[in-house]
Amino acid sequence: MPTIIAETRVACPADQVWAAVRDVATLARRAPHVVDVRTDGDTSVWTVLLNGSAVSWVQRDTAGPDTVLRFEQITGDLEEMSGNWVVDETTDGTRVRLVIDFELGVDGLAPLLEPMWAQSMQAHAEALLRALPAGSENA
């Protein structure tokens, strides 16, 4: 299962960044590859463009402990997807880390397709980090 890790440092206070991470619908609207995100309680429905195709899923979002937001696909186009956001206050601002684990579910083709999908998923993660409040700088 490929793992994607993206990280950035943000000049905003950690509580402001945490609020932005928790508000996934607003954050996602600032990322141009995200077609749609709808939230309902602890679930969110995503449609994003990856590799030129619309990919959709429903995920359960669980906050805590501390400033960690975990997510897990309930249903969707991927075989599996899960991960987390971690927001940490540092001496020079706030560090934000986004980790995504995914499985395409195409056993025989995985060696061919996973590298391409990993690049697209990495771009997805980095675009979400760039959508954070002003003052972010990729680490």
Could you please describe the fold and organization of this structure?
The protein is an alpha+beta fold. The protein has a single domain, classed as 2-Layer Sandwich (Alpha-D-Glucose-1,6-Bisphosphate, Chain A, domain 4). 26% of the residues lie in helices and 49% in strands. It is built from three helices and eight strands; from the N terminus they run βααββββββαβ. It has an eight-stranded antiparallel β-sheet with strand order 2-3-4-5-6-7-1-8. The longest helix is centred in the last third of the chain and has 21 residues.
List the keywords.
single chain, alpha+beta, Alpha-D-Glucose-1,6-Bisphosphate, Chain A, domain 4, eight-stranded antiparallel β-sheet, 3 helices, 49% strand
Question: In a nutshell, what does this entry contain?
Answer:
With 139 residues, this protein is an alpha+beta fold.
Write the layout of secondary structure elements.
Blueprint: E1 3-10, H1 14-22, H2 24-29, E2 34-40, E3 43-50, E4 53-63, E5 68-76, E6 80-90, E7 93-103, H3 110-130, E8 136-138
Antiparallel strand pairs: 1-7, 1-8, 2-3, 3-4, 4-5, 5-6, 6-7
The CATH architecture: 2-Layer Sandwich
**What is the CATH class name?**
Alpha Beta
Rg, Cα atoms, Å: 15 Å
Strand percentage: over 45%
Uncertain stretches of 5 or more adjacent residues? none
Most strands sheet: 8 strands, antiparallel
Mean pLDDT, all residues? 88
